[in-house]
Amino acid sequence: MVKFHGTLSESSVHFRYFGLVKLEQRIAHDHLVRMCFNDYDREIAIIGVRNAPETKEDEIIAVGRLIKVHGVNEAEFAIVVSDQWQGHGLGTHFMKLLLDIGRQEGVEYIIGQVLSDNQAMQQICKKLGFTMRYDSFAEVIEAKIKLTSDVN
Q: Which helix (H) or strand (E) holds 44?
């Protein structure tokens, strides 16, 4: 996970964390503990790994999270893809996986906040059927999709 965070540009960090979070903060022990040890009743993480031909070692290239929102039947998504692997469909693939996981978990809505300059994530959300609404107070785009159908 430490190496993965070293592959992220300032732009990728800004889009994921909504600000510039220094590498030292992202790889601090307490932060990594929260990221690596999930409460699976509340949070699920998926990780994209590839075997690097140069080193013959596994390397993390993407991370996705689905975090249930307390008190409502919603979950929030978060995805970050290593800069070298952006533009290859991993973000879309991870979002589809998170939607499938949400359905399996019986989540009614999946939501997320996307910065207005994060065009790639906005395109993914639109392509997959999220409704997009600008929140002028938070100055972000709220992406929301309903997973469960109303059955009468």
A: strand 43-51
